[in-house]
Amino acid sequence: MRLQRGRWSALACALTLAACASTPPATGTDDLLTGRLGVVVEGQADRSFSAGFELSGDARQGRLALTSPIGLRVGEARWHGNVATLSSSDGERRYDSLEALADDLMGETIPIEALFDWMRGRPWPQAAATPLPSPRQGFSQLGWEVDTTRASEGSIAAVRQNPPPRVTVRTRLDTR
Fold it and tell me: Cα(first)–Cα(last) distance of the chain, in Å?
């Protein structure tokens, strides 16, 4: 199912929530990430967005809060085991998995489980990865090239060329 413009806008606004969220970061944990996220699906401007996020947990259990550019909470996704829910002003939707939720919202397959590690500048341990050719910094994994050149600044870019269309996911983590 492809995302309609209104739902895509809601997702974009929701992703912005976390960057502006007033919830203080957890102390002493490595499982809370906050920052900004951008997704570009080339050739389809209505499927590009940028927003804030607050992500906690991992691929098995977690929460993703999303905000608008002015800090308004637009949506929240929660998952545990084989159940994922998305709560927004349109109500609540249930999915059989986190991947199903992401596929429905983004209209493209994005390796959500791997993103948890990629945002931290490292390959996902569940799949083979190869270093990018020098002088580039990063790795290829699951058909994506993950650029870690600016990982020390909290910035990661992941690009999938094939299958078309080209999809780029950029994250910029807040520093604590």
Answer: 38
Q: What is the pLDDT of residues 86-123, one digit of tens each?
A: 998 889 999 998 888 888 877 788 888 899 899 999 99
From 3.40.50.720, 3.40.50.10070, 2.50.20.10, 3.40.1190.20, which CATH number describes the 5-173 domain? 2.50.20.10
> Which residues, in sequence order, are CB contacts of 117 under 8 Å at separation 6+?
123, 124, 125
Give the contacts of 34 (CB within 8 A, at least 6 positions apart).
18, 19, 21, 25, 52, 53, 54, 55, 173, 174
| C-alpha span between 9 and 47 (Å, rounded) | 9
| Cα–Cα distance measured from residue 135 to residue 156, given in angstroms and rounded to the nearest whole number | 16
Greatest distance between any 2 Cα atoms in the chain: 48
What are the pLDDT digits (tens) for 44-75? Answer: 666 777 788 999 998 889 998 988 778 888 88
Beta bridge partners of 62: 57, 79
pTM above 0.90, yes or no: no
Whether the ω angle into residue 164 lies within 30 degrees of 0, i.e. cis, is no
